[in-house]
Amino acid sequence: MKQRVLALLTAMVSALALAVFLPATSASAAACAAGWSASQVYVGGTGASYNGHNWSAKWWTQGEIPGTTDVWADQGTCGGTTTPPPTNPSGFVVSEAQFNQMFPSRNSFYTYSGLTAALSAYPGFAKTGSDTVKRQEAAAFLANVSHETGGLVYIVEQNTANYPHYCDTSQSYGCPAGQASYYGRGPIQLSWNFNYKAAGDALGIDLLRNPNLVQTDAAVAWKTGLWYWNTQNGPGTMTPHNAMVNGRGFGETIRSINGSIECNGGNPAQVQSRINLYQRFVGILGTTAGSNLSC
């Protein structure tokens, strides 16, 4: 009897020793979030995985490596297959997340995919010069676009009384789509029959006879905005593209778009609205505004 009790006690002690000295089975690690990317912008509360841990951004961050700065909160280890970070096949300096941050109330017509699809029409746009210049040009274009469309809300000109006025009958090709068909459309509000013809000829699209494409096809709409930005001086002395890549500054882009009405003290409130948007957008893109902001 004594021997059996002793054997039982010995077994219990051995079991306790094993419980003390053997590592406990760890709980399953959380699934890894999308992998951190240096080019991605993260706003407060968004997550990413890095080096086997999930991290949560405390506030806006870009390029700050998780674990090396207090902008990231460690959410613990993670396991399994890491979802790759979102890619940007177009190579555009503005990510879709940044685009959505710039235009939180935009009309669903103005898609990011439509914008990136339009970039091939003008390959030098936002891809010329230093990384700073590329970001500044993208911010300048989008700031002017935002001002023209109320934050990418309006697809067409709101004052319908103006519609019949945009047909220049002195042009040999006239207004085949109808006299009242060439009102402002798209991100830079393309208007007048001669502008629809010029933009269409440059883009290989018959916009003179089919102006409605600018309000029904997002890629076409964005292409017309890029056409103006990259090829037209407007009331200025250079294209907005040249103004940004040659160091003339954001103010010169305002002059090229609406300088005859807004610049030289014509409408300082409108100029300041454009400047405010530009300063906000360069902040989102993580760069500086540069000089010569006003016209």
UniProtKB/TrEMBL annotation:
- What keywords are assigned to this protein? Disulfide bond, Hydrolase, Plant defense, Signal
Disulfide bond entries: C167-C175, C263-C295
Record's SMART domains?
ChtBD3 (SM00495)
Record has Kinase as a keyword: no
Q: Name one GO biological process term.
A: chitin catabolic process
Q: Which Gene3D superfamilies match?
A: 1.10.530.10, Carbohydrate-binding module superfamily 5/12, Endochitinase, domain 2
Domain Chitin-binding type-3 spans what residues? 33-75
Q: Which GO terms describe its molecular function?
A: carbohydrate binding; chitinase activity
The organism's place on the tree of life at top rank: Bacteria
Q: Does the keyword Hydrolase apply?
A: yes
- The active site is formed by E148 (proton donor)
Record's signal peptide: 1-29
Q: Which Pfam families match?
A: CBM_5_12, Glyco_hydro_19
Q: Which PROSITE patterns did the record assign?
A: PROKAR_LIPOPROTEIN
Q: Which GO terms describe its cellular component?
A: extracellular region
Spell out the PANTHER family in the cross-references: CHITINASE 12, CHITINASE-RELATED
Output this protein's name.
Answer: Chitinase
